[in-house]
Amino acid sequence: MGHQDNAAERDSASAVAAYSAPVLAAYDALVLGAVSRFVWRCPAGDMLALYDRNVSARHLEVGPGTGYFLDRCRFPDPGPQVTLVDLSPTVLATAGRRIARYRPAALRRDVLKPMDLQGRRFDSAALNYVLHCLPSGAPEKFAVFDHLLPHLEPGARVFGGTVLAHGVRHTPLSRLQMNLLVRQGVLNNTEDSLDLLAEALRTRFTRHRLAVHGTVALFEAVV
Ligand SMILES: C[S@@+](CC[C@H](N)C(=O)[O-])C[C@H]1O[C@@H](n2cnc3c(N)ncnc32)[C@H](O)[C@@H]1O
């Protein structure tokens, strides 16, 4: 068990190691601007619309990256309480600076494990472009939803997008890019399918909605 825990920790750490300061500096233009639109065929605006529909005044952001969506989305309240959760201190600092106007709390946590969020409760939680990074296979990775649920109020919304390997239409370019990123350890989605994601949401939430945009599944679920 101890060995397995150590291996899982190494995997989690290597999945976030990619998000160094130079990578984060290029991330919005490269990943959200170019790759998302032209390779995955899901423009950042589609995910921003998901945020605008679901984000609440007590929001938990898992894996904020550069903080792009939190910076741009429309909160229902001018002074939202935002908590950032990430394994990477660089990500927490970068996203925290970007949305400093909201005075976010930042907690270094591994979402693959049950998390102590210091008693905070939320009405929304986003994990955008996080599921496809997680090193455990599917359906095991969907345990992340179980790690969020204890911190969510009834009626809270859980949402985000994830690049799937199965159940979406890949182009030669998207397949090439996905395989390259899998080999580099940036993506860990070879077992991720639309069916497994739908089943994970169906068994944990009161209701959910899934929309496929290119190779990305956009999900919205209600606790
Ligand atoms: C591809 S980035 C997504 C950034 C942002 N949400 C977006 O949509 O652009 C993945 C994020 O998930 C974080 N992450 C990956 N694995 C994690 C884990 N096991 N626990 C917590 N955060 C994790 C990474 O550090 C990074 O911030």
Give a written overview of the molecule.
By secondary structure, this protein is an alpha/beta fold. It is built from eight helices and seven strands. The longest helix has 19 residues. The two termini are 32 Å apart. Bound molecules: S-adenosylmethionine. S-adenosylmethionine (SAM) binds next to helix 1.
Give a quick summary of the entry.
The chain has eight helices and seven strands, in the order H-H-H-E-H-E-H-E-E-H-E-H-H-E-E. The chain has 223 residues and is α/β, with parallel strands linked by helices.
Q: Give me the number of helical elements.
A: 8
Q: Major beta sheet, specifics?
A: 7 strands, mixed
Helix content: 25-40%
> What is the level 1 CATH name?
Alpha Beta
Strand order across the biggest sheet? 3-2-1-4-5-7-6
Write down the CATH topology: Rossmann fold
What's the number of structural domains? 1
